[in-house]
Specification:
The structure is a single chain. The strands form 2 sheets. The protein has a 3-stranded antiparallel sheet. By secondary structure, it is mainly alpha-helical. The chain has 2 domains: 82 residues, DNA polymerase, domain 1, CATH 1.10.150; 183 residues, hpI Integrase, Chain A. The longest helix has 21 residues. The protein contains 13 helices and 5 strands.
């Protein structure tokens, strides 16, 4: 290690935590080694040097998070050189990293959902009903696990022909303590009624819809995730409780539910967040949207 780098190490150890200081020194050492191999002194380096260095790290197999952490150490070193050592350096541009590719939003097809419900039948209550209700309500895993026993309400729907459809809604207190009403899809209504009239009556826990291991707590969200993982193994898929949330919302969107209403049901104040992160739309949705509107110039 050079004397200058040793001096930087003494400085950074005094102003940052030991773990951060070690990381900064190691990052700086790697950067200086790269500069030496390049053969360009810092004082004459081009302004896009940090981007060039970041690109070399990407090509070497480092992930974006590691590179950003390394660059934080390098920038601190460069600042130390100018402020504490009086070095005259170029004003380097911030490093530009390729934006990570956005993961394709997933949802379960009708066929996969059928398998999902079939495999869920083998789970013990109360987790059995909880995981089966996930795609029927679009609730977050933590919301489902902590539902109070009083959250369910009958909400009859009067059809245009005058007949009445018996439906259920769930009142949820979500993020930011905001309350919202979530309709239960038709497939979930008999599941929930059977659960309430059957297994749920045997529990001494009178507070939560899905009791935990004792008479006080509710089912843990960790247990809910574990059960979903158990179900997905035979299907050789990598879905999560959040996949069920996308399945519910995308299904409703395809059925014609307005996106503003979807945001209200999902508990989102920003419609763009809903559209960008929770609707798993594909090319068929694009084609249907265009041609349902006419598909013509005039």
């Amino acid at each position: 290690m050079s004397q200058e780098l040793q001096a930087f190490e003494s400085y950074i150890v005094a102003v940052r935590s030991k773990q951060t200081a070690v990381r900064y020194v190691r990052s700086t050492e790697d950067f200086l080694r790269w500069m030496a191999a390049w053969g360009v002194p810092l004082a004459k380096a081009p302004r896009d040097t940090l981007s060039l260095y970041a690109q070399s790290r990407l090509e070497a197999g480092y992930n974006a998070a590691s590179i950003l952490a390394d660059l934080a150490g390098v920038r601190r070193y460069l600042r130390w050189l100018t402020e504490k050592r009086g070095a005259v350096l170029p004003e380097f541009f911030s490093a530009e990293l390729p934006k990570p590719k956005r993961k394709v939003k997933d949802m379960l097809s009708a066929e996969t959902l059928a398998h999902y419900f079939q495999l869920a039948q083998e789970i013990e209550e109360p987790a059995r009903t909880a995981v089966m209700l996930l795609p029927c309500t679009g609730l977050r895993g933590g919301e489902m696990a902590a539902l109070p026993l009083t959250c369910i309400k009958r909400s009859p729907f009067k059809r245009q022909d005058g007949t009445v459809k018996d439906t259920l809604t769930i009142t949820v207190v979500g993020k930011g303590s905001h309350e919202r009403v979530v309709p239960v899809l038709d497939e979930g209504v008999p599941l929930l009624m059977e659960y309430l009239q059957g297994w749920r009556r045997t529990s001494k826990n009178k507070q939560y819809l899905f009791p935990g291991k004792n008479d006080v707590d509710h089912l843990s969200s960790r247990m809910l995730r574990k059960v979903v993982q158990q179900i997905r193994e035979p299907l050789k898929m990598a879905f999560t409780p959040h996949t069920m949330r996308r399945t519910y919302l995308t299904h409703l969107y395809r059925q014609g539910v307005d996106i503003v209403m979807l945001a209200k049901i999902a508990g989102h104040t920003n419609v763009r967040v809903l559209a960008g992160s929770y609707l798993a739309l594909d090319e068929h949705d694009v084609v249907n949207a265009v041609h349902s509107a006419g598909g013509r110039l005039a």
